[in-house]
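FIELD: query
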Amino acid sequence: MTISTRIIATASALGLFAPAVWAEDYSAYFAESGIAGTITTLSATEDPTPSDRFALGGALFLRGIEATLQERYRVGLHDMGLGIPGLITELNPNPAPDPFTPDVIAGLFNQIGEMMDQAQDAMAPIADADTVSVTLDLNAVWFDINANGTRDTNEDLLPVMVPLFVSGWQVQDTLDGFAAAGGAPTITFDTSDVAWLQAYTHVFSGTAEMVMAFDPTDMIAQVQNNAETIATLRDGPAPMIFMSPEDETLADLITIVLGVLEQTPNSVHTRAALDDFRAVIAHNLVFWDRVRAETDNNQEFIPNSTQDSALGILFPDTIDVAWQAVLADAAKVLEGELLIPHWRTGEEVGVNLNTWLENPSALDVVGVIAGSDLAPYMERGPIATTDTLAQFDGLTGGNFALFAFTLN
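FIELD: result
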């Protein structure tokens, strides 16, 4: 095959000679070039359409997750057991990892935050009146976890992403369900889904801001040094921090978490997190307004009551109302209009989360349980309840986690 023939064949495989398909179906980007290559191509697109902008935003969102997985693989953090986005999915062990250094965790979340910011910027110009139509075969998406440029085993989208949405036994059940249906579905994302993705970028960036507010680097270094000292004295290897299930590792992890919480958080990051969580709710409300107005039924991601989801999940007809009730309570908690209950304050006094996020102090676990560390943030007022959460859980048949993570 000549060079020119190869170029033509590659271009045809990527859809370059089929503008109508290229404008809507972005599957070939991800299948052939991976996430990073897709970003490179879409970033170079002249005069991008709203669909191009959404596809780029989605690729940047996925790249934030991929970069985290790559960094974990690089230093051998294949099974961390922490319920934080980016640190949940179990990876194949790296046979020759680089040494773990205390700044890795902060670096992971700093990188997530930067990628989410870029994704938000890519989608910001998309307006309500714009038409977005991005068809994507989810089987085409893969994460280059070992950064070798090749799609390898356990790098498909579903095994990586499902543990971010469900937990425990539900992970394998969910994967088995998709396998029985022929794998990941093909979805046509539309203008409504832009707001959904914008909300989810803020979920991740808000989480990253909170981790950076409690920068764990110094505490990790301290615990790591102490573990190495103990290991030297007993003439044995030091345990690997964050790698379960060794008792020593669990003890080190608890020490790190408690030590990190006892630090005074960086208020710049807690205030940024507050803004991110506000944005999650704002974008989610826009999403549902757009979804209700839809009249088509084309490979929908999250449907309205007259549509079907390509995910194969049955969404209850009134799930939008129930979920927005949950978000309304969450918004009031973020603004301090509803207070968080504490066991020793009764029914008329609670903790103002907004006050703490605006001007945070260190939180000793014992002081939080006793209430003494929270006293400066306590006040009289209406108390948040779990009523809307219980109603949503009942509507979803007890699958609160699955639907909550799907709807964000």
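FIELD: remark
The CA atoms of residues 246 and 317 lie 46 Å apart.
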